[in-house]
Amino acid sequence: MSLLRFEDVRQSYGAEEVLRGISFEMDRGDVEVVIGPSGSGKSTMLRCVNRLTEVDAGTIYLDGEAITTPDTDVNDLRRRVGMVFQDFNLFAHRTALGNVTLGLEEVLDYPREEARTEAMAQLERVGLADQADSYPAELSGGQKQRVGIARALAMDPELMLFDEPTSALDPELIGDVLAVMRDLAEEGMTMLCVTHEMGFARSAASTVSFLDGGQVVERGPPARLFESPANERTGEFLERLTSLHGGEQ
Amino acid sequence: MTTVVALAVGEVGLGVVLQAGDWAFVLRNAEFLLLGAGITVALTLTSVLLGLLAGLPAGIIEVYGSGAVVGAVSRLGVLFRGTPLLVILAFTFFVNPVNVGAFEAATLGLGLRSAAYQSQIFRGAIQSVSEGQMEAARSVGMSQVEAIRHVIVPQALRRSIPGFQNEFTIVLKDTSVAFFIGLAELLTRGFNLFTQTGQSTAILEVVLAVSLVYFVLTVATNQGLDYLGRRFAVPDSGGER
Ligand SMILES: Nc1ncnc2c1ncn2[C@@H]1O[C@H](COP(=O)(O)OP(=O)(O)O)[C@@H](O)[C@H]1O
Ligand SMILES: [Mg+2]
C-alpha cells in the first residue's frame, strides 16, 4: 500500500483554482521531487498534506487513511509529517537545541533530559552538534536549514515535506543541506521535495513530477523525464531551468 | 545659611523662594512622604500587574480569537481607553456597589485602563512575529494554544518591552490621580503637608520633593526594565529567518 496518495485534489484561493485535480501516489521510502514554475501550486500541494492549507475537493491518504476529513486529528497528522520551509522559520527565541527540544517536550511529552539527549542526536545527524547553543541569528543559512531538518526529524515522522529548502541559500551553502537530504533518502525516509536542484533529483529521486498550472503535467523517473520529456511544456521548463543554472525561485 | 534662590521674586514675594526653614519642614516629614511613595510603588505594581494579567490575554484574543469574544474584548478596550481616568476612578470607588477601599478601587481603575493599553502593545507585538513562526510550531504538531504559549508569546513579550516600559511609567505617574479618591499616596501626602496651617510657604519645596521622588522612581523603573530586556535578549530577535 502506498504511504501517500493524492486523489483528485483541488484547492482554490477565492476564484483562483491553484490545484486542479492532483493525483499521484508514493510508496514508503520513495523520494518524489516536484518541479514547476513559480505559482504553479507546488507549495500549496505540500501544505495540503499537513493541512496548513485545506483542500476544497479530493482526498489525501497517509498510510491508507484519509487525512483530509473533518475528524482527522490535525496535530497528530502534523507530528507524523515533517515539514522543512524555504525560509527556515526557526524559532528565533530558542537556540538550535531549543528548536529541536520544543516539539519533543510539548508534543511528545519527553522529560527535559531525554528531550535534550534526543535533540543532540538529531543535531549530530545533520552535523550541527557543535552549534547546539547558537541562536538562529548566529547561524548561516545552511546551518539554519539543517536545524530546521533536525527539528522535523526529531518528531520521528513517516514522511518529510521539503519546500524549496535551498532556494534561500547562498550557492556555497546548498551542498551541506543537500548532503543531509541525500543521507535521509539513503536511510529510507519517504520524502516529498519541491526543489530545482537537478543534481539532487537525478541522484536521489525515485520519481520527478512536473507541476504546471495546478496539474501534474508529467511524471516519471528522473533520467527519463530529464533526458526525454514527453510533454512540450516540461521540455521548455527544463530548458529554461538549465539555462538559468538551476535557479528558479 | 539662608539660601535664597530668586525664581520669580516679585514685590509680593508669593512664597516662590526656597527657604532653608521650609526644606527642614520637608525633611522632618520625609518619612511621612516616603510612606506615601511606598503606597505609590505598591499601587503601580498592583495596577501594572492587573493590566498585564488582563491585557496580555486580551491582546492574544484580539489576534487569535474569533467571533463575539473578539468584538467584546476590543469594545471594552475602546471604552477604557476613551474614558478619563478620573471618571474611571469615580466608577470604581464612588459608584462601585461593592464597598472597597481606596487602594483596591485605584488598583481596579488604573489596572483596567492599563489593560486596555497593554492589550494594544501586546497585539502589535504578536502581529509583528512572522506568520512562519506559527506555521513552524503547528507543523511539528503543537496545538494553537501551545504554539502561542511557547513560540509566539515569548517573542512578542521581548518586543513589547519598550512599549511596556512606557506604559509602566505612565501608570506610575498616574497613580497620583488616586488623590481624587483620598488614597494616601505620595501626592496626597504632599498636599496634606503644605495645606497644614502655617506651611503655605513650603508649597514649592514640598512639590519639588514630591516630583523628585516621582522622577527617581521613573528612572529606576526604566533602568530595571532595561535590565530585564538585556537579561532576556536573544541575538537579533527581530530576524526569524
Ligand atoms: N495564502 C494565499 N492566498 C491567496 N493566494 C495564494 C496564497 N498562497 C498562494 N496563493 C496563490 O496560489 C498560487 C500557487 O502558489 P504556490 O503554491 O505558492 O506556488 P509555488 O509554490 O509553485 O510557487 C499562486 O498564484 C499564489 O499567488
Ligand atoms: Mg512555493
Notes on the structure:
The complex is a heterodimer of chains A (249) and B (241). By secondary structure, chain A is α/β, with parallel strands linked by helices. Chain A has one domain: 3-Layer(aba) Sandwich (Rossmann fold). In chain A, 38% of the residues lie in helices and 24% in strands. Chain A has nine helices and ten strands. Chain A has helices spanning 42-49, 74-80, 96-106, 112-125, 141-153, 171-186, 198-204, 222-227, 232-243, and strands at residues 4-13, 16-26, 31-35, 57-62, 65-66, 81-84, 159-163, 190-194, 207-212, 215-220. Chain A has a six-stranded mixed sheet, with helices on both faces. Chain A has a four-stranded antiparallel sheet with strand order 2-1-4-5, with helices on one face. In chain A, strand 4 and strand 5 (65-66) form a beta hairpin. In chain A, helix 3 (96-106) crosses helix 4, helix 4 packs across helix 5 (141-153) and helix 5 (141-153) runs parallel beside helix 6. Chain A is globular, with a radius of gyration of 18 Å. Chain A starts with a strand and ends in a 6-residue tail after the last helix. Chain B is mainly alpha-helical and 241 residues long. Chain B has one domain: MetI-like (MetI-like fold, Orthogonal Bundle). Chain B is built from nine helices and no strands. Chain B has helices spanning 20-28, 30-64, 68-81, 85-95, 102-128, 131-139, 144-174, 186-194, 203-231. In chain B, helix 2 packs antiparallel against helix 7 (144-174). Chain B is elongated, with a radius of gyration of 23 Å. Chain B starts with 19 loop residues before the first helix and ends in a 10-residue tail after the last helix. Chains A and B meet through helix 2, strand 6, helix 3 and helix 5 of A and helix 6 and helix 7 of B. Bound molecules: adenosine-5'-diphosphate and magnesium ion. Magnesium ion (MG) binds at residues 42-43, 163-164 of chain A.
